[in-house]
């Protein structure tokens, strides 16, 4: 670009900063290529300290290559369709957050209901009944519905396919068929 625009490359006010940035990136890339060629051609065997210094310089120069990606941001302002697409994605993320919040509230509400029903049912059982009925294995009602966090996690697993609906709903059938119906709905 310097050859095509001449002196205006360094004095053009509308893109002066970008022109200097482009010049810096190209100059450091050329310097890096020159240093790599000189190391390859001469294959100077220096001490380890000098070798790490050379590689440190090369790493710094390679970092300037990464900065070239910043130039792409200049193009984004010209691509209206891309801006619209990015704006739409950002707008849907806001809706996604509200949808996840609503889902969390629904899971919490039903977890409270199922935990209360399970606790009420277990209070009506005679002392030690669950231990006799299930032996050393854990009662599925306790596994899925004994505490609020467990109930919320059971509902989340049932929604996302982490556990079968039948496996989670079957213990609720011991309470009443209405609880199974509530779970299904």
How would you describe what is shown here?
- With about 180 residues, the chain is an all-alpha fold.
- It contains eleven helices and no strands.
- Helix 6 (about 80-125) crosses helix 9 and helix 10 (about 165-175) runs antiparallel to helix 11.
- The longest helix has about 45 residues, at about 80-125.
- About 5% of the residues are buried.
Layout of helices and strands, plus pairs?
Elements: H1 2-5, H2 8-11, H3 16-42, H4 48-67, H5 72-76, H6 80-124, H7 129-134, H8 140-145, H9 148-160, H10 165-173, H11 177-184
Shape: elongated
Describe the sheet with the most strands. Answer: none
| Binned strand content | under 5%
Q: Write the element-wise H/E pattern from the N-terminal end onward.
A: HHHHHHHHHHH
Stretches with pLDDT under 50, minimum 5 residues: none
Descriptive tags:
11 helices, mainly alpha, 185 residues
Would you summarize the structure shown here?
By secondary structure, the protein is mainly alpha-helical.
């Amino acid at each position: 670009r310097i050859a095509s625009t001449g002196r205006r490359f360094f004095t053009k006010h509308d893109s002066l900063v970008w022109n200097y940035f482009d010049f810096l990136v190209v100059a450091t890339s050329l310097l890096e290529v020159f240093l790599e060629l000189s190391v390859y051609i001469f294959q100077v065997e220096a001490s380890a300290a000098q070798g790490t210094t050379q590689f440190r310089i090369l790493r710094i120069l390679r970092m300037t290559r990464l900065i070239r990606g910043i130039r792409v941001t200049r193009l984004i302002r010209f691509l209206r369709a891309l801006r619209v697409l990015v704006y739409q994605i950002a707008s849907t993320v806001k809706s996604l957050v509200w949808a996840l919040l609503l889902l969390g509230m629904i899971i919490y509400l039903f977890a409270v209901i199922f935990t209360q029903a399970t606790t009420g049912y277990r209070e009506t059982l005679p002392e030690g009944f669950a231990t006799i009925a299930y032996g050393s294995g854990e009662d599925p009602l306790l596994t899925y519905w004994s505490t609020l966090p467990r109930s919320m996690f059971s509902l989340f697993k049932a929604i996302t396919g982490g556990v079968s609906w039948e496996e989670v709903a079957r213990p609720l059938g011991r309470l009443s068929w209405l609880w199974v119906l509530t779970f299904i709905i």
